[in-house]
């Protein structure tokens, strides 16, 4: 995607995992939740309607398939899929596995506590898990 440039804040706050047919999958730097961010690899996308209809469908498929795989693997209680874009204008979609006992439950993860960095090998382990889940989820019908 020659015209795709990742916003510097997304680059700073997340780690590249894998590129899907449409989206770049990035792992949030907050270790409190299994949390990925999907960014369509297209230039100048601020709102979902900036994508053509077929790519809007593709975005939803990538998000829901990966979310379903993450829910099963991490045994979550609820899947949160959200887009805000108030701080970072570049369109990005958060996919977060939630647990009824997590620190922010039942409220949103935003504005609750401070992000916790991954420790030791946990970052690479989570990154590898998400890469496997994404590859399997997207290759299945």
From TrEMBL:
Record domain HIT: where: 36-105
Coiled-coil regions, chain positions: none
What are the recorded GO MF terms, alphabetically? catalytic activity
Query: Which top-level group of life is the source organism from?
Result: Bacteria
Q: What name is this protein filed under?
A: HIT domain-containing protein
InterPro entries per record: HIT-like (IPR011146), HIT-like_sf (IPR036265), HIT_Hint (IPR026026)
Q: Native species of this protein?
A: Salinicola corii
Pfam families tied to this protein? HIT
């Amino acid at each position: 995607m020659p015209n795709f440039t990742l916003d510097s804040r997304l680059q700073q706050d997340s780690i590249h995992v894998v590129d899907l047919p449409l989206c770049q999958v990035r792992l949030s730097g907050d270790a409190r939740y299994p949390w990925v961010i999907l960014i369509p690899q297209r230039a100048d996308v601020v709102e979902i309607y900036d994508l053509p209809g077929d790519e809007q469908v593709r975005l939803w498929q990538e998000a829901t398939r990966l979310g379903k795989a993450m829910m099963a693997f991490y045994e979550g209680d609820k899947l949160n899929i959200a887009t805000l874009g108030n701080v970072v204008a570049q369109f990005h979609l958060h996919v977060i596995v939630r647990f009824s006992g997590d620190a922010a439950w039942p409220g949103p993860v935003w504005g609750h506590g401070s992000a916790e960095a991954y420790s030791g090998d946990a970052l690479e382990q989570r990154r590898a898990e998400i890469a496997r889940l994404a590859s399997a989820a997207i290759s299945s019908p």
